[in-house]
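Minutes, project huddle
Topic: does the predicted pose make sense with heme C bound?
PN asked that the exact inputs be recorded in the minutes so nobody has to dig through chat later. Recorded below.
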Amino acid sequence: MHFLVRHANLIFAAAFLLPSLSSAYAREDDVKAQVIAKQNACLGCHAKNKKIVGPAFQDIAKRYANDPNAKIFLRNKILKGGAGSWGVVPMPANTKLNDSDLNLLLPWILRGAPSAN
Ligand code: HEC
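Predicted holo structure (tokens), as shared on screen:
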């Protein structure tokens, strides 16, 4: 009991700090992903929650939420471009993205692009 009373503040702090630390890391990746999306003109055609030329990132996230192949499928689609998933307007190929760009972009898009405007 004595231990608990003396360390209650520490236990309390740990319980609250740990989850917020991990979300700070998630936010850092979100910001990186957003920069990559901006640099590659993705944000000229996509926004977080409204259709521009391409579908909203949140709509993409919803559509593929339960699709175990989403990352592989979308990785290919982003690189090669194409139409047919959302309509007849094609996405151009995005040939400049490297693996580390894609590894940041894909989870970010599949979470609905949390940091985008
Ligand atoms: C010139 C406009 C344009 C640009 C630039 C663009 N997109 Fe797209 N994007 C589209 C269109 C149009 C679609 C819908 C294609 C379809 O219906 O299959 C789409 C679809 C997508 C999809 C969903 C694909 C599917 O089959 O469901 C993802 C993910 C995506 N874009 C990511 C990106 C990323 C990441 C970038 C930047 C590297 C990017 N887009 C750049 C127009 C664009």
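Observations noted during the meeting:
- The CA atoms of residues 9 and 20 lie 17 Å apart.
- Residues 37, 40-42, 44-46, 53-55, 60, 74, 77-78, 82-87, 89, 91-92, 94, 97, 105, 109 surround heme C (CB under 6 Å).
No decisions taken; revisit at the next huddle.
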